[in-house]
Amino acid sequence: MRKQLETIIPGGTRRIFHFASDVLTHNPTGTDPTPEQWAKIADVIQEKNHIPFFDVAYQGFASGSLDEDATSVRLFAERGMEFFVAQSYSKNLGLYAERIGAINVVCSSADAATRVRSQLKRICSAYVLESTGSWGEDCGKCRLVFHSEANWHVLIRWPNKAQQSDNMTNKWHVYITKDGRISLAGLSTAKCEYLADAIINSYHSALLYWETPIEL
């Protein structure tokens, strides 16, 4: 990677990194630079005037500390370099359906920051003004308000994942998304059997509902 930064990639190029501190939380594969290696990477990027873009999707999962996992990014900030940091809170906060995240840009001057802020506002407006999870709930409420008589039962002929998810949450206090996704990073060995019981119970809780004939 260092050789590519030095000789192959043109100067002034944006470069994407998955980051952490001693252990890199990359997905699905990657390398694990040490703090010393990060310093050498920063040397090359600074010399070649590259603009790094850090993809921060798993902060806290590498060392268990949010602060320690920011070591590599903080190194670039301390050197006064310009870079982007895209943060997602889907994994470390379990907010999969709420589109929660942030884009942070470290600029070389107040004037540059003002111009970048202006452009980011234009780009992100389409994203921050809607939430996919809330959108689904709102559609259900609108149907009740307008007393829709349309028959949508054909859309629920497949297994009712939402009913299973509700059972997992309300009865077993296992918090997953409506479509059944779960963060295994938060699962300890001691809780594996409990989770298995919750999944089995939730599966059977919706089984009778699935087998009920649907009127079209």
From TrEMBL:
GO terms for molecular function: L-aspartate:2-oxoglutarate aminotransferase activity; pyridoxal phosphate binding. It catalyses: L-aspartate + 2-oxoglutarate = oxaloacetate + L-glutamate. GO terms for biological process: amino acid metabolic process. In eukaryotes there are cytoplasmic, mitochondrial and chloroplastic isozymes. Keywords: Aminotransferase, Pyridoxal phosphate, Transferase. Homodimer. It comes from the Eukaryota. Pfam families: Aminotran_1_2. Its EC number is 2.6.1.1. Residues 26-129 form the Aminotransferase class I/classII large domain. Belongs to the class-I pyridoxal-phosphate-dependent aminotransferase family. Its cofactor is pyridoxal 5'-phosphate. It comes from Brassica napus. This is Aspartate aminotransferase.
